[in-house]
């Protein structure tokens, strides 16, 4: 019995010793683990500190890069200003070689696109062109025995009004009539046809205002300014420039700021001009000549509602948009120049002004360009003298007779008043 008790006591003692030993071992390991964590934390703090320092060290190059980017942006703006005004472009970052390569690609692609005329699926939608060697007759009715109202030549284009099985009704310029389907091409086939037959090209301005240079250089003299969406037949073409005729002068436009497309013209009417149209110019001239006696009474009758009077003048002027330009012309329907246009429009309402733009600049009352109202006249200089006049129509726009596109040989059109820098404003309507 004593042996059993002693054996049990010994076993219990050994168990207690084992437990105490394990506990001591665990405490020691925990202490070591905690010490390890503390060491790791210290190491992490040291790494974080060095990493922070690295960030601070990198901050200086970033700062330099920012300055470089700023200089690049300034250079871009300077280059841009050599070609255009009133146009904002996003600066191109050139901080790395990869970025330089990336930014260079769009320019290369743009030049490649400009080599061939651009078009989309909608460019020729609803259009028709003649597929003939010389001329296709446009007839008044759907019959070969019907009256010929126009000539649809190779290089012309028209809008499809109604397509039938054998005949299609088109409108091209001022001519509306029927042509046989057998001699027409449609849609995108027009582009292919133009390419196969080496049609001339035109440049369509993409910038708000683009400078026309005397030579192929940004240092060359600026001949004039042209506005967005104006188009000009290309006379010659190089890698970076197109030679066009704008405002009577041959000059160069930077390719980066124009879209190149095929140049089409409108059909010509074969219908003889009616007497009312033939005498319109004479009647307008007579009104202008006699207006000195009528001016005072006309102004008195309309002075009570000058706003309405101005809008009437503008609405009347806009009726002739699309009609052709003719230097020295006096007909609002058959050909007129810039000063003839303003004289005839104002003359219709009884206001008498001079015939040339430089003389008109001395008529009426000089006002600030910033205070123009619809119906006022805006003047532009070239070579130090006034050579062009327009009529302000509101919303920053003018209507004028121009000898440049978008009409084949210029015409009466609407442009931004800032397409060139106006030098003077004159008020004729009180």
Automatic annotation (TrEMBL):
GO terms classed as biological process: proteolysis
SMART domains documented for this protein: SH3b
Coiled-coil annotated residue ranges, if any: none
UniProt KW Hydrolase keyword: yes
GO molecular function: cysteine-type peptidase activity
Signal sequence bounds: 1-28
The protein's name in its UniProt record: NLP/P60 family protein
């Amino acid at each position: 019995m004593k042996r059993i008790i002693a054996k049990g006591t010994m076993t219990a003692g050994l168990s207690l010793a084992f437990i105490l030993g394990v506990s001591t071992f665990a405490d020691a390991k925990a202490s070591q683990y905690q010490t390890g964590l503390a060491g790791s934390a210290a190491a992490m703090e040291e790494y974080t500190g060095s990493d922070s320092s690295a960030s601070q060290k990198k901050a200086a190059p970033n700062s330099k890069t920012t300055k470089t980017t700023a200089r690049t942006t300034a250079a871009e703006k300077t280059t841009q200003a050599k070609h255009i005004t009133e146009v904002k472009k996003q600066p191109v970052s050139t901080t790395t070689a990869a970025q330089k390569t990336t930014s260079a690609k769009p320019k290369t692609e743009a030049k490649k696109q400009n080599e061939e005329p651009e078009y989309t699926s909608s460019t020729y939608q609803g259009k028709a062109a003649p597929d003939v060697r010389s001329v296709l007759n446009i007839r008044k009715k759907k019959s070969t025995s019907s009256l010929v109202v126009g000539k649809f030549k190779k290089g012309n284009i028209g809008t499809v009004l109604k397509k039938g099985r054998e005949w299609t009704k088109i409108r091209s310029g001022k001519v509306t009539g029927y042509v046989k389907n057998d001699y027409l091409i449609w849609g995108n086939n027009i582009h292919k046809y133009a390419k196969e037959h080496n049609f001339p090209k035109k440049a369509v301005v993409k910038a708000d205002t683009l400078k026309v240079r005397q030579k192929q250089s940004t240092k060359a003299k600026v001949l004039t300014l042209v506005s967005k969406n104006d188009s000009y037949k290309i006379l010659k073409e190089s890698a970076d420039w197109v030679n066009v005729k704008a405002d009577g002068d041959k000059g160069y436009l930077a390719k980066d700021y124009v879209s190149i497309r095929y140049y089409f013209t409108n059909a010509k009417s074969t219908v003889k001009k009616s007497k009312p149209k033939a005498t319109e110019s004479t009647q307008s001239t007579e009104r202008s000549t006699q207006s000195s006696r009528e001016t005072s009474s006309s102004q008195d009758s309309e002075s009570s509602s000058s706003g309405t009077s101005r809008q009437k003048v503008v609405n009347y002027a806009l009726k002739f948009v699309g009609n052709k330009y003719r230097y020295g012309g006096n007909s609002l329907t058959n050909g007129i120049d810039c000063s003839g246009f303003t004289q005839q429009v104002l003359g219709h309402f009884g206001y008498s002004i001079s015939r040339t733009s430089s003389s008109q600049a001395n008529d009426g009352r000089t006002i600030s360009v910033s205070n123009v109202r619809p119906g006022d006249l805006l003047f532009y200089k070239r070579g130090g003298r006034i050579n062009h006049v327009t009529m302000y129509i509101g919303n920053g726009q003018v209507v004028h007779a121009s000898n440049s596109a978008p009409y084949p040989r210029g015409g009466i059109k609407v442009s931004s008043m800032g397409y060139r820098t106006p030098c003077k404003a004159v008020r004729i309507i009180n």
